[in-house]
Amino acid sequence: MTSYDKELKNINFNLLHIEPNETLRQDLKNIVEEEIKTFYQTDSIFTARKLFHNYKPDIVIINIDLSLNEEGKDFLDELQFFIKQNRIIVTLPKEKCHCIPELIELGINNFIFTPFEKEHVLQVFKNSVQLIELREDFDKLNKIMLDIIKEINDCKKDREKIMSERDEYKNIIDLAPIGIMLLDYEYKVKYLNKNFTKIFGYEINDIPDGKTWLSLAYPDPLYKHEVISSWTKEVQKDFLNNKREPLIFTVSCKDTTTKRVNFTPFKLETGDFLIFFENLDEYEKYKNKFFFTPNIDTLTGLPNRRSLEASLRQLIERAKSSTNKRGSRSVMIFANIDDFQEINQNYGHIAGDEVLITVAKLIKSSLRTGDSVFRFEGDEFVVLLKGTTMAEAKLAAERLQKIINQHTFVLEYTKYSLNITMGIVQIDGSIDTATLLSNAVQTIRKSKKEGKNIISVYNKNN
């Protein structure tokens, strides 16, 4: 028995599997029937909807083709209303990994490839359960903190006694996996828990008051104003009776790095302010660890270099085996953002990441159905155009370049335009994946020598 088997046997959850292929249904049943106590299977969304509402399964597994048709998308929306996203798993063959970005946009980030491999299937189940438990731990902690606030407010005692009673909660608060700050009515910092210092690096002597904290944590004046405005609105809410929306901001840490945090401020009846800081970067790290998909770039959501190489191999084989040379040939456009390093140096890596995400969206939204875009590495992207001539590819590259040139990027409240250099390579089945990529890199280098915002076509004679 594997370690996955042992861990899953100790977890009581049930599962719904929706799969039109009878062989795949039986394969999954053979893998999980010993580990999972209750297991439902069906071949249609119609029956799945009935099973879901009647038996309320903890995890739902759905075939990719069913999930992407109109009925399936409606069902996914319905599922996400009742259960958390990490409890929904889509099954798909590896040759359909190009569909993963579309699924991610639908809120799905957990996948199992077919044909099923027992170790992979059980690992995904284990990861789903672990992230569920992690999220529930955060939820439980928030409830504990709310109970503490309520008890302090209900005491109606003088400030001195409240401060002495604070020590009763100190051990709990110090062990909390979130950062906690306590400010008095004059915005002087009275207390920081250990995890606050672990997350941000600041100790109480670094930030004696709220003004110092805001100046260090949010050095940009306009951004700081936005934080203060959100804070002012949120602290007016009754902490028990009003629904609180996430307040997500980027904090500058003592070591000059930045972290994304969700902060929740409460105003106590004593006039003090209690603030919880949840480190979203840490949560994303766990999430990426649990739901790591080897074919997806975690920043842009695009298929990554590994996925690109698999797609190139398929296109090369298609070109080799096809008798219709016109329809079987494809083209690769290799794109590199000009002067991207200057963006990172002048505006910071967070701004650079935002540029990469935006470029990825611009390219993806501009492609034909059936064409694909990949993040190769760093500031490099690759577009694959199927059944395309070099002349058509040149026009497509010019159109993509124009879209990116004309887009206005905003970096630290400054308008910024981008240049992007491209190299075009034919995929005709005569050379392998490594050589194709090498030729593309050579073409980009040739373009860079000629200047910026250049489009070059690979020529083996040059």
Structure summarized in a few sentences:
The protein is an alpha/beta fold and 462 residues long.
What would you say this structure looks like, in words?
This protein is an alpha/beta fold and 462 residues long. It has 3 domains: 125 residues, Rossmann fold (3-Layer(aba) Sandwich), CATH 3.40.50; 125 residues, Beta-Lactamase (2-Layer Sandwich); 153 residues, Alpha-Beta Plaits (2-Layer Sandwich). It contains 18 helices and 17 strands. A 5-stranded parallel sheet has the order 2-1-3-4-5, sandwiched between helices. Strands 7-6-10-9-8 form a 5-stranded antiparallel sheet. Strand 1, helix 2 and strand 2 form a beta-alpha-beta unit. Helix 1 packs across helix 7. The radius of gyration is 27 Å and the shape is flat. The N and C termini lie far apart (59 Å). The N terminus is likely disordered.
Strand ordering within the main sheet: 2-1-3-4-5
Classify the secondary structure makeup into a structural class.
Answer: alpha/beta
Count of helix runs:
18
Whole-number mean pLDDT? 80
Identify the CATH architecture of the largest domain: 2-Layer Sandwich
CATH superfamily of the largest domain: Reverse transcriptase/Diguanylate cyclase domain
pLDDT below 50 for ≥5 consecutive residues: which ranges? Answer: 1-11
Number of domains: 3
